[in-house]
Amino acid sequence: MTDSEIVKRWLESLNSRGKSRHTLAAYQRALEHFERWNKATYGDAFDPAAVIGRDIQDWKAYQQTVEKASPATINQRLVALSSFFTWVVGQGITRHDPSADVSALHLPKRDVKSLEEKDYRRLLRAVHAGGNLRDIAVVELLGGAGLRVGELLALKVGDIEIHERSGRVTVRKGKRGGYREVPLTKDVRQALDDYLETHPGKDDPDADLWLGQRGAFKDRSTVLRVLEKYALATRLPAFGPHVLRHTFASLYLKANPGDVRGLAALLGHASLNTVMVYTEPRLGDLAERMEKIDRSMSA
After folding, report:
1. CATH code of the domain in which 238 resides
2. How many H-runs (helices) and E-runs (strands) does the chain carry?
3. Which runs of E-coded beta strand occur in the chain?
4. How many folded domains does the chain comprise?
5. Are 101 and 53 in contact (CB under 8 A)?
6. Could you report the per-residue pLDDT of 110-145, keeping only the tens digit for each?
7. Which domain holds residue 219?
8. What confidence tens digit (pLDDT) does each residue in 226-260 have?
């Protein structure tokens, strides 16, 4: 089997596991980057069986010191290479994984990915303009209740409770089996109510909540495709459902400063330490606060 055939089969395996096209493209670019570095360094064609751990350490160092790539970019490439070699070993093409002992770069704790409020509003406008009631309900619920994508996909019709002035979504089996109820805002209630009116199983509490042309949504990739569609429409970088969970957390703390316990309950976190990451200021926030120092001194 040629190297190009190996890479092709690896990408096909990722696709069959539901990886988004953006992830596939990023992983392919990462492997191609390593292949170019390998060629420039050793003058040899890429051979997975010839790669050792020191090669990947040197490649990582090259990105840090010569390319000056961002830590997030380097880590993404390392994840892609790890995925490739894990698959290669599983296929019996090589006997060892040279990436196993290469660690990722530590990122600042405050590097939490979420949409800026203005970008989140742009996203909501694009989804509503599209007119697909299911998509509207999906995005409103992810961004308005902070659910994990697995929790979203597991919802049944009976897990949504809507009244004139209140409503809630019941997560029956969250992370580590946790159960919680999350209140729904007016906009989220309206989006869900509109969608449920068109749902063929709206009177069956055990019916799957999310339906597509091929049946119920069961895989994370279906949600990714929905988000990719509207990210493209709003010219936002591609993002996954967890970004909307982070966006919900950031907006909640902005509206309710210091209410870490409340946020932990809504997100289904048993430990407050996990939620503390959302209290860390962004670099832009710190820059703005430092500008205030200059303004106060010149006043």
Report:
1. 1.10.443.10
2. 13, 5
3. 160-162, 167-171, 180-183, 211-212, 215-216
4. 2
5. yes
6. 445 789 999 999 999 999 999 999 999 999 999 999
7. 117-283
8. 999 999 999 998 899 999 999 999 899 889 988 88
pTM over cut 0.85: no
Name the 3-class secondary structure at 100. coil
121 and 83 within one domain: no
Residue closest to 37 by CA, chosen among 13, 9, 14, 56: 56
Q: Are 153 and 208 in contact (CB under 8 A)?
A: no
Q: Give the model's confidence band at 159: pLDDT under 50 very low, under 70 low, under 90 confident, else very high.
A: very high
pLDDT bin (cut points 50, 70, 90) of residue 43 is very high
> Are residues 51 and 145 both part of a single domain?
no
Higher per-residue pLDDT: 13 or 108: 13
Active site residues: 148, 175, 242, 245, 269, 278
Is 102 domain-assigned?
no
Tell me which amino acid residue 82 is: S
Which is higher by pLDDT, 209 or 174? 209
Nearest to 215 by CA among 131, 270, 134, 141: 134
Do 149 and 189 fall into the same domain? yes
- The torsion angle over the Cα atoms of residues 204, 206, 212 and 217, rounded to 10 degrees, is 170
Q: Are 52 and 42 in contact (CB under 8 A)?
A: no
Domain co-membership, 161 together with 269? yes
**83 and 191 in one domain?**
no
**Claim to verify: residue 179 and residue 224 sit in the same structural domain:** yes
d(CA 31, CA 10): 11
CATH for 86: 1.10.150.130
Angstrom distances, CA of residue 154 to CA of 113, 201, 220: 24, 15, 11
Same domain, 136 and 32: no
Backbone phi, then psi, for 31, in 5-degree steps?
A: -65, -40
